[in-house]
Amino acid sequence: MLRFLGIFFLLFFLIPPGLKAQGGNDRIPPEERINECVPFIPTAFTPNGDGINDRFGIKINPNCFTVRFNIKIFDRWGRMIFDANDHREPYWWDGTFDGNPMKEGTYTYHIVAEFELPDRSDRVEVRRHGFFTLIR
């Protein structure tokens, strides 16, 4: 009978799906690649006709294919003043509602989008909401 006395250390390796134990990589899971397709959303815009930041819009990585897209903009009372769906462009707002310029202030956006990753291996859904400022 063998007896071992002392302190022993055990080392465990957890290998996520898609990664090989030898260190190779079959593919990176979409959750880790979502940053490739997360849109840039500005915090302010100035629709004053000078050609600089005249529209509130998002910037999407041109390598990400837009499968589904929706942006809604609300005023401070919760009234929806802009809605762009799927392939109805533009995906930007010019600061007007029913043809009239909106007042300076804070507005809310809600974005739901689905993108195909640049290598076309998978799709990711992005949901964002927040605030931005209209400055005249």
How would you sum up this structure, described in words?
This is Gliding motility-associated-like protein. It holds the Pfam family CHU_C. By secondary structure, this protein is an all-beta fold. It has a single domain, classed as Immunoglobulin-like (Sandwich). Helices cover 3% and strands 37% of the residues. The chain is built from one helix and nine strands. Strands 1-9-8-3-4 form a five-stranded mixed β-sheet, with no helix packed on it. Strands 2-5 form a two-stranded antiparallel sheet. Strand 3 (65-74) and strand 4 form a beta hairpin. The longest helix has 4 residues, at 30-33. It is elongated. The model has no long low-confidence stretch (mean pLDDT 80).
The class by helix and strand makeup works out as mainly beta
Whole-Å distance between the termini? Answer: 86 Å
The main sheet comes to: 5 strands, mixed
Q: Number of domains in the coordinates? A: 1
Instruction: Give me the Rg, rounded.
Output: 24 Å
Taken from the alpha-carbon principal axes, the silhouette is elongated
